[in-house]
Amino acid sequence: MRQTTVSIIGAGPAGLTAAYLLSKHGVSVNVLEADPEYVGGISRTARYKGFHFDIGGHRFFSKSKEVEDFWTEILPNDMLDRPRSSRIFYNGKFFAYPLKGGEALFKLGVFEATRCVLSYMKARAFPVKKPRNFEEWVTNQFGSRLFGIFFRTYTEKVWGMSCKEISADWAAQRIKGLSLSTAILNAVWKPKPKNKGAVIKTLIDTFRYPRLGPGLLWEACAEKIKAQGGTIEMGRKVTGLRYDSDAKTWHVTHTAADGSTQTDTAEHVISSAPMRQLVNSITPTPAPAAIDAANKLKYRDFLTVALVVKDKDQFNDNWIYIHDPGVKVGRVQNFKSWSPFLVPDPSLNCYGLEYFCFEGDGLWNSTDDDLIALAKTELAKIGLAKPEDVVDGCVVRQPKAYPVYDDDYATHVKTIRDELAAKYPNLHLVGRNGMHKYNNQDHAMMTAMLCVENIRAGKPVFDLWEVNQDAEYHESGDRGAQAGATGLRSVPTKVKDEEPAAAS
Prior knowledge:
Polyamine Oxidase, Chain A, domain 2; FAD/NAD(P)-binding domain; eight-stranded mixed β-sheet; 19 strands; alpha/beta; 16 helices; globular; 3 domains
């Protein structure tokens, strides 16, 4: 039986951040990763015949100085500054994103633009007094026509639920301060700031990005962990966690692909595994209420169809949001625009078509050949490549990409948190799936950083659950400007039933 001070489940951004910082301070760590090949979790970089591509797009931008300094320390010489560019595709046309009101109305044509303006005027004159859902809130701001064009389809593709089911509070967070009238005014006349310092170079303009994708950074981080004395075991699935209350130690059992098992002992366990999976692996068995809560947690999954195409310079955007209901794809990534080094042959490009789904549904269970055929057809419909321009392709499935914030998720998470805190000392939850929180990469890293501080202090100095709880967080502001910065990654919540009126 092997002994270590800290056993870490998962080699994603949170797990590797914790392992690096702990091993840097001389703490013995062992990282257990279920994937046999890749570190980085959802921030890994997949490889196919010399092509590199993300599982989703991962911009390296954070308001947290600690996070920005970490990235620089891990990868000092291979970070590129890349221009940020994205558009929306709808009804055969491409629109700038963020939306420019004047351009949007012009491209929609006179007839549709008139309908949009009239719809907007109607919504302003007769707004829904107390908007309860996403559709009502956005319609109040933009009118029903623009809601249907630029908001409904993509939102429903990503989250797999009707806009009438999503709370108005989420809309207010996501689209704060926008209106059609101000968008048009800004498109026609945009006042200059009174002083030069008022112009902030934000993520809207540029972002940092590893030369060969985010996986390059996390692979470098893994090597540094090993150099500092830590260990990382790939293809090891944690199948059991047993807490010995007499010895005050954890016994961590993990299984390899060949079925062989091993058990380690550790003083602390840091888990970035899905909360549902973790709770069901613990002994002594948690209370039935905690087990039930864990099993009711839900996730949204997605898959990427990476198509290798003849490069005809069809578009230079990093990605395009597909709002058109005539295709199933939700977003198209242009990996050469992220970094030209991702594509080994300059005569070729690689597009990533992202399909949002639920594990086990029709899309998820489709064969790779069928998904590649679908992606080729839809890429042609969008006008980004002809089927004969596609020379190769592959499919990568990503389970549990997004935690679902349904009506009861907060209650379930609290039940689990209370149970773990009461019965299982030195078990630390970090990261997106570990905490069932829709964290950005930097937020996941920040939970790990605070966790390390707690372990080193021997007591809970920081509350990890406060990360990603600020009232607002935008992709703006100075990079690394805030020490200990946190922020909101807003996630749709379902409409709650009205409270019954009190009896008079």
